[in-house]
Protein 1
Amino acid sequence: MQTDFDIVIIGGGMVGTCVAALLAQEPVLSDIRIALVEPHAPTMPPVNSDVDLRVSALSRASERILRRAQAWQHLPSPQRSAYEGMTVWDAAVQSNSRSALHFSAAETGEPNLGYILENRRVQWALIEAAPLRERVTLLGAQLQSLEFDDDCVRVGLSDGRAVRARLVIGADGAHSVSRELSGIATTGWSYRQSAVVTHVRTEKPHMRTAWQRFTAGGPVAFLPLPDGRSSIVWTNPTERAEQLAKLSPDEFARELEIAADHVLGAIEVTAPRAQFPLQLAHARDYTRQRFALVGDAAHAVHPLAGQGVNLGFMDCAALVETLAAARANGASLEELSEVRVLRRYERWRKSENALALGLIDGISKLFSNDSAVLGGIRRAGFAAVERTPLAKRFFILRALGLAGERPKMAAGL
């Protein structure tokens, strides 16, 4: 059957636009017809606007993937905040103690440990990427229905249009409509925690360092911004987070100073506050015939390690690599949507993501409590890692996305 598109991507956030741009730039897939379904047409962020509250810490692997997508060039250095160090410590000790973890780019041979970037600017850079602009059709509507037939998927849109596709990729976030319509269930739980986010100016400079202190209620993280401020992600039990969100800016700043153990001195809140609930969710399957999930639609993680969108970009690279390899080995356009091809991607990324989710969930449960026994274990563990170069290198390489079974483009190949 003649279809309208070979691949239809649901969701035009960072992950959806990334997989679209990567597909569009892949030479062996140059004959596929690609559409991106996104109801809210992306617009260029205002040049002189304040830093948006939604920021992400992008790893080295993500940087390489965005370079391959031809998006990195649209993220000039004034928009990027490179950080060269990271300090992580338990609330029972000082940030400069032997039981705190101190990571440095110098230990890896890398120029930095990553970049803090606004989500909206990353999304716009991907929209502006030449492959996407030249080869991807944007469909400005919401997904309404998916009907899986033997020879195509019928994609119903909110504006009344219906298009047919050989393969649909669900990239529509943690509350994925496409995942639900495809009949894929998830496992997971709520952490009964919420993260409060805002931007602050601190008395002491952040020194291009990310700071994270673990308290009984959850971690508080300071992410360095290019203008000298820090973006805050402060996790607390939901009721406590709601109370913090209602405080005056000065009252909130005083509470934040205490939570951070005054590591950066006095604090001034310089932006509105927002909060969002935290959960762990993992799709039971990443694929079915003519369908694949990427990003938060496949897995939602606690933000304490900053790995959410990085895992999503790795999904994108792995899926495109899987499809390109199958095509290079003689697979037809029709065969790319078959389970036998898509399951190669699922086996690859599901195991890697399960490892990451398990590690992050374990850290969250180990640290978000006031148990004296677990506190001793935490501090002993931190001290052991701090004294062991190989252990520190393992964690740094994981954070950079340079460990595990990586897609070639994430490895810089």
Protein 2
Amino acid sequence: MSPRRMVCITALVGIMALAQGGHSFFQLATVVENARGAAATFVNSLNDEQRAKAVLPLDSPRRLDWNIIPKETRKGLQLNEMTDAQRAAARAVLQNVLSQMGYSKSTQIMNMENLLKEFEAGRQNTPLRDSTRYYFTVFGRPEANEKWGLSVEGHHLSLNFLLDGDQVISSTPQAFAANPAVVRNENKSAIELGTRMLRVEETAAFELVQSLSNSQRATALIAETAPREMRALGVSQPPQDPAVGISYGELSATQQRVLRRLVNEYIRAVPDEVADARRQLIRQNGGWEAVRFAWSGALQPGIGHYYRIQGPTFLIEFVNTQPDSAGNLANHIHCVWRDIRGDFGERL
């Protein structure tokens, strides 16, 4: 086959992918190439001692170790162990594996540690609060035609990726959290009253559950009291319980739009091309008709509540039952997007 004919066929494949509502291979390849380049720049900026912490083998069992709770130690190299230039390189890695929205949420979560430090000053046995105690780990070698992984993690944030050649094999677990979810107290940390984190994840869910009829709510509610925490927090693989709650098909057209908007808020934390791949997996595995929404706890803010959204390829869990550090009830969110088929690219 002539080179010119090969180019024409390759271009046609890309056009067909776009016409079918998918994402072009070349677009995704660019995303992966940019992430790989940023990761290589970060790794190359490190000295030997830093690299020993920041770079681990791809088959290290620590790649499957994740959590968002305060921990004394984690895998990886902390931002506070880096020079200013290295921190900029680390943040560039984060920018290249997330959408602008996902990056904004991540940096907001990091900055909120300053507010927690202020609110908890003088208390006994509180965790160390530090906006630079976020750890970056590269697994394997971020090079062309190589499989490699990335973890960015600290209090209230865990982002995990596996890339291979020009493919994003896995982008889960993806966990965000907020304490406080809404800033209700005056502070000296330059965070305005009313500042809200993970807004859509909570407000769209309340919009949906409050719109349900009595008969719909009877199907959607799985418990009167919300659990204290998400299931399988810190466990390498998501729970495999069958989906429960109300099905997408049992919702009105308006309610379906709200549910799609809610799910898409989790989906679009990553670059558009990766987000499109997540949506494509939903379409290819039963579509929205295979998705269920379940709720536990109170039907209004300020009292513990929880929801779960599950389809054949994904699991969302959201819980808001804990008080924030200033004592405001149910103002402390944990939420996660997981691959029900297996996180970290480890197929179950």
Protein 3
Amino acid sequence: MKDFSRRSLMQTIAATVAISAAPLPALAKDETQQTASNLFVESNGIRYAYRRFGASDGIPLVFLMHFRGTMDSWDPAVVDPLAKRRPVILFSNAGIGLSGGEAPKSIEAMAGHVEAFLDALKLKTVDLLGFSIGGYIAQQVALDRPGLVRRLILVGTGPQGGEEMTHFSPEARAVISKAAGAAESLPIVFFAPSERSQTAARAFLSRLAARTAEREPQVTPKAAQAQIAALIAWGTPPEGNRYGRLAELKLPVLVVNGSHDIMIPTINSYILAQHLPDAKLIIYPDAGHGSLFQYHEDFVDEVSRFLQA
């Protein structure tokens, strides 16, 4: 499947959404990240995998995952407490995990798949939580469909054309190139080198391993290369006003990062907060890219207050 051009992407989104004939399943109130079933919905010939569970009422909170991550990469200590107060939806983009199609090579195309998926679920209003590359995608969805996204949570991410975003840092590149899979690199790329942070990393990995059934396959090398191409393209400064499009995101935004992010430098979180019209910034100390997992209790409290405001 060829990567979407911007025009063909908009034409695809505008086209009639082909939804599978089966009715959407009822919300799984009592399920958790450990037990939630893998669900599927089809749109425009792509079969998307997702998990949907949590409270029966409220605006759904949709989670968009990091580079080389799947639905199994979400920390139950983050997802499950948030699901007690609102519906949550975990999503695998095209070509990732159990979703069909091929992983696109642009953030715009990845956002198009998110929009097609949400349309297939007939959702009119959502909150988005985007982590890392998921934060890039979340920004693009909010730009494309301002009436769809109510509030935005951007974690460990950056603006289009941000600082040092066309490449991985030497620290991150060394770890990623040696790791057999995404999980092997997490203690170093997601957490600080201090004993406190590494203790949190071990607890995080233990929580991720709790789910044993219906796990998604790891991201393929081909899909990872597509994601890298999208990362580089998004990180390249655009012509003209470098951060001009951030002014279009007039919705409330919560920006979160660790004090030393070696994947997407922390300075980019400051840039987001400076240029977004309505943003709150949280920087966690002695933390890296995965600060939301290290400080999961505080993060859940902050997100809950932000979404309820």
Protein 4
Amino acid sequence: MRGSDRLNQDIIKANLGTKRIGRKIIVFSSTSSTNDVAAEYAKNKINDGLVVLAEEQTKGRGRAGNKWITARADSIICSIGLSDCNLNPELLSLACAVAVAEAIGRCAKSRAKIKWPNDIILNGKKIAGILAESKSSKKRIACIIGIGINCHQSIESFPPELRQTATSIDIESGTICDRNSLTKRLLTSFDHWLEKAGDDPGIVIDHWKKLSTQLGHRLSVIYNKRKFTGHCIGIDPEKGLILHLDSGAIRFFPAAQTSIQK
């Protein structure tokens, strides 16, 4: 099922039509981490909106220091650098999640969902992850958005312990994903939702709520090594996930310091 499509910056950039994202696109055959590469470029403001892609990364990482491992050319491994970002990190993460879910849903022809803080779910299984990082330099804050999307994996591609919880676009759609086409959709969608986040955060929140797998459900979260349990009642663009705790209190949980207990 694994595809032979090579990522090509010229194909992706052709008629892209974005305002900010994809002004420059770099594709590596192999690199240590696309987030690290994008962070270096983001030090210079002329590289705002630059996109780094790789067929393979040797030191890919996910949230909380977890490794992101995928076979060569099986996924979209992408990092977007915003050299001067004035959006709240929580809102930026929400906008990115909506954008990734939208792009995957259009490609897979099945509605993708968002599992806060950084997972995208398709038909009940994880298909993508997001890692947002901030870098401060010279009175500017650069934001790096790392995105990994499973495309060509078969069920056997995943370790046995993940086969019940992970999936790919090829598995779910029954076809071979065109990674260049999906990347173009991803960049277009991210550009759109990034602009919306700056103009009207409420629109981003509304779409996040429509795609959330957790809104209205009972959750247990770990925050500062403490466990909190309650019902998810919303999301705040600055403070994070909102839980109505079993104790009766309403509490906010920022994504950077919070994890969902499985």
